């Protein structure tokens, strides 16, 4: 069986109004998803959460399908209607049209609960008149009964031991129409659905429909009063029980004394008065010396009614209806019926369903008050959280029944703090973004500069006719130019096609051990080796090696002595060296030989000139 009241989390906007309005704190927040949840055990079925949930996320269990199934089953059905129909169906011009519409739905009998109201009212009268020192609380409102069973179990024995008029009416129907008759109750309160289940053993109400559900049925069956003739309720007809929707209707039904000077019955109506009066009754009944006629007030305003009209209008409609009913009233017949059905056993008992929670630890409450920025002496609260004081609110937070967010000032402060931290966060975020952008731009510039430098170096290396190689401590090539690759020969050229510049190639495989010794020496000792002639296969190379980072990186300039430009430069260099060396000697000889020495100098200079003009290149 579905719970009476449930929340559709998809529609819920987590406004927590339902937590604030629930009179018994049956709604609490699910810690994991922060959505409200209803505790079936704690709920008393008042329906306040439903009427106050703006997005319509809370609903009550629908019985429309059950009603349709029953109506189509072909079984004998009796509708029993609360007299509150007068306040709901004022759009139907005559209540007898309303009765006909119910018959059109498939009902064999249509009865009004007001006769049962009369009976229960007289039962109360007898109970109160037969006073034996105990004061009672009337029990026709299932919300009040449930509230006492769950939250004031000490008062269970003060509940008038009588079934409600709905249950009494069902019992009378079974008496008249037999045990097999199927009964559909129509009324304004959703809590009657639970009440019917509770009494399914003694009253057998098959379906309970609210007025709103009945309207839906009328619509689905396309029932309109304009196409229907009058028809009256089936007997037994009630008398003043038609006033039942009014707070003191059941008292008036039995003409009980309501004069505050002489009566020992006090009528209480409405959510707050009910909660307070029951607490007071428990505390002070020995002094108050009054019976309580209490109703939560859902007969005219609950979630089972359409939201139209106001209190005075609805009460006026009830009174107008009661007067109309009296036009066809036969007192003698009513009285006989009353006598006859009064004999039925309408007594009942109530169960202790204690849902009270233990007092929370005082330190914990103080801690919560501190969090709320309130203190224990703040006895009066603003009521926004649904509690009469900040302390009572803090106590329920400690019990796990409420959450600090229900306090508007706490929620406001939290949202301010949240906004403040959000602002800081945003500022930090924008600073980080800016820094990130700047560093990205710098990195981009550095990358471009590095690329330009690298391109520049590569271009320069490529322009050099000498072979250049830069290598690391593993003797792997870091960078080399085309001239170097050409010097190494065909194998190196093939590698270059796959790995441009021979990057990563192992020099040990490409150069002779003699050259490798030079390379290793320079790398480890950090000293230059300049212009060393060395053979690589058939080729005479002139090699200079220099350290770049000691023990890590070194470079070499290698010249192929076969290259014409090298030959020419080398010849010039070496002839210059010969001239220099010989000049000294010539000068010395000049002293000895005179003019002949200058002829030798002229001859050598002419050789240099010959090479400089390109005639010695062999081209
Ligand atoms: S009243 Fe409750 S169920 Fe409805 S939207 Fe607000 S928190 Fe959600
Ligand atoms: S129906 Fe009433 S008691 Fe139940 S959860 Fe809603 S407000 Fe609370
Ligand atoms: S200040 Fe907060 S805790 Fe106190 S009554 Fe108001 S809403 Fe409730």
Keywords, separated by commas or semicolons:
binds iron/sulfur cluster; Beta-Lactamase; 24 helices; 619 residues; Alpha-Beta Plaits; disordered C terminus; five-stranded antiparallel β-sheet; alpha/beta
Structure description:
The protein has 619 residues and is α/β, with parallel strands linked by helices. The chain folds into four domains: 1-61, Alpha-Beta Plaits, CATH 3.30.70.20; 62-341, no CATH class; 464-562, PAS domain (Beta-Lactamase, 2-Layer Sandwich), CATH 3.30.450; 569-612. The chain is built from 24 helices and 15 strands. β14 and β15 (553-560) form a beta hairpin. α23 packs antiparallel against α24 (595-612). The N and C termini lie far apart (111 Å). Residues 372, 374, 381-385, 387, 390, 393, 407-409 line the site of one iron/sulfur cluster.
Instruction: Give unreliable regions as ranges.
Output: 614-619
Shape: rod-shaped
Bound ions, cofactors and other small molecules, one mention each: iron/sulfur cluster
Q: What fraction strand?
A: 5-15%
Q: Largest sheet, order of strands side by side? A: 12-11-15-14-13
Number of strands: 15
What is the residue-mean pLDDT, rounded to a whole number? 87
Structural class: alpha/beta
Radius of gyration: 54 Å
- The helicity comes to 40-55%
Q: Could you tell me how far the N terminus lies from the C terminus, measured between alpha carbons in angstroms?
A: 111 Å
How does the major sheet shape up? 5 strands, antiparallel
